[in-house]
Structures are given as C-alpha cells and as structure tokens.
Amino acid sequence: MIGHITAIAATEIRIGFRNRWVLLATAILALFALVLAFLGSAPTGDVKVAPLTITVASLATLSVYLVPLIALLLAFDSIAGEVERGTLPLLLATPVSRSAVILGQALGQLAIVAVAIVIGYGIAALAVIAMAEGEMTGLSDFVRLIVTSIGLGAAFIAIGTIASASVRQTGTAAALAVGIWLVAVVLYDLGLLGALVADPDGVFASTAFPFLLLANPADAFRLYNLAALDIGAEATGLAGASAALPFPVETALLSLGIWIVAALGAASIVFRRLEP
Description:
By secondary structure, the protein is mainly α. It has 14 helices and no strands. Helix 1 (about 1-20) packs across helix 7, helix 2 runs antiparallel to helix 4 and helix 7 runs antiparallel to helix 14 (about 250-270).
C-alpha cells in the first residue's frame, strides 16, 4: 500500500508542476510575505523585538488566509476531477485501494504546499535577515511557523478532499472549496467576534470562546503561533495569551492533528460510497 501511495503522490506532484501550481503558490506567498516583512519590521525599535520575530507574527496572520485557500484550490479537483474526466474507473480498476488514492493525492498536494511555503516564506526571511544586518534572533520562531503552516495546509487539503469526494463536477467542488474557506477563515471569526462584543465579560468570553477558537483549524494555528511568540499585545494583540488560556497552548497543535486525521478518514468513507 505504501508503494501505491507513493506512486500516486508522485503523480500528483508532477501534475502540480505541469500546471504551474508550485510556481503560482510560491509567487503568491513570497509576494505577500515580502510586503509584510518590509512593513512588519518597522515597529521593532519600539517593542524591542527581533525583526524576524515580528515578521513571524505578521506571517502567522497571512498564513491563516492564504494557506487554507491554496490548499483548498489544490484539493477540490482531486476526486471530482477524476470523475469528470472519466479516469476514475480506470484508476479503481488497478489494485489500488480507495484509501491509498486519498492518502496519495493528499500527500502529493501537501508536498506542493510545503514547497511553496518553504520557498515563499524563506525568501521573506532572507530579506529580513539582510535588512537586520545578519541578525538571526527569532529563527526558531520562523521554523515553527513553517512547520505549523504545513500542518495547516494538510488540514485544509483533507477538508477539501471531502468536498471533492462529495460531488461529481469540478465546478461544484470549486464552489464548495471557496465556501469552506469563506466560512472557516472569515465568517467563523466574525461570528465569534460578534458574540464576544455582545457578551465581553460573560461565560462566553471566559469559557466558550477559547474552545471555539480551538475548534477551527485556522484559529488553532493562529492561536498557537501568536501565543508561542509571547511578545505582548504591541506585536500580536495577544498579551499574555498563553497564560490566559484554560488549556496548554500546545493543545492547538493537537486540534490540527485531529482535523487532519478526522478529515482524511471522512474523505475515505465518502469516497468508498462514490460510484464511478
């Protein structure tokens, strides 16, 4: 089964290079990361924080918006595209299990996202280090950001695969992917913000709010990275965030892991019910 998964992942990577997905995703991430890197380094003299650490705080917010979108746009075509092109019966006629198809495609797409993140954010890091005259303080924060950004991409690739396996047309799958991004990244936070404004000192703010953040993979990613920096409200807007949480900040990583496993499992179940 491992050989089948590897072969499917390699095919997915080749398709990604052929369709210029790697180049496009890298260019998007690098462009926005460079803009934030140049703008984000400005306040370091006031808050006494290393420029690279400030850049990590900015890129953590950028990742919440761009990484899920890139992941979903990669994943929506995985199963629905095979159905629409008529290649799914041929794929299933081989001795490859449906679970191997799901895992192989997800791994291939994750490799594309990982390459884009490492190169795109790496360019921004090199620019910041050059502007800071070689100062490397905050490099560990940057590495943590890259690793967790890849984890965030994995979660939304898995979620996008569910959407792709649930429909038979790529147009419908694309609409579902955009809808998922809109709800998870934009509307979910707006809803939480509205509830927080309506009840700033009640049970919701003190008890439910942190766990609802944890329930969303995008918010769990942002919560972990900004709280782990621990550089105060001036830089992140989360003063003492890790101390105020009713759970260890590492629980956010567990939330990401649960989303990846659960979503891939759900995608496999949905795919098993799909008739080519």
